[in-house]
Fold:
Amino acid sequence: MDIKRLIIVAVGGQGNLLASRVLGEAALKADVPVRMSEVHGMAQRGGVVESALVFGQAQSSIISDGDADVLLGFEPSETLRAMVKCNENTTVITSLSRLSPFTVTTGKAAYPDLSRLRKLIGEKVSRLIAFDAMTLAHQAGSALSVNMVLLGALIETGILPLSADLIRDIIETRTKKAFVETNTKAFNLGFEKARQLR
Structure:
């Protein structure tokens, strides 16, 4: 299989690490080689959390600038900040649900205009899938399931060698029992949303 490089960016508390773990375990179950690394930053204070996953026979989990095949962004301004990892062939999947960073909430910076943000990202990559993942997470039953909504959208693209059924199995076996139904519904809603946005 071809090597596929995925960057996931989020703000602390959005479930980036669980999403990465689900993907990693799915890859292992499917006998797909995977390498993972994480940068936690100041996650406890709402700082950025970045995960890199490389699928296939790669020597390293490091994804250099311009080398990502897919960028999955849980927060739009963090997606924009991570665009340095992308190239003209990259697919970007991002939530449009704002989670203002500390500098914005204290008035020291302005949040980027979402329509301009979409335009800037869309001009630099081959495909942009952008939608309000928080609304779908609420529809699934929990604001905390944004990560599963975005996983659904990611798997729908077919870029990674992982099936939707396999991801659902991992969600069922590796997430807390109390959240399985909500997480599965969130995954399915994200999958369908990405299909609608083709």
In short: The domain at 4-196 is CATH 3.40.920.10 (Pyruvate-ferredoxin Oxidoreductase; domain 3). The mean pLDDT is 91.
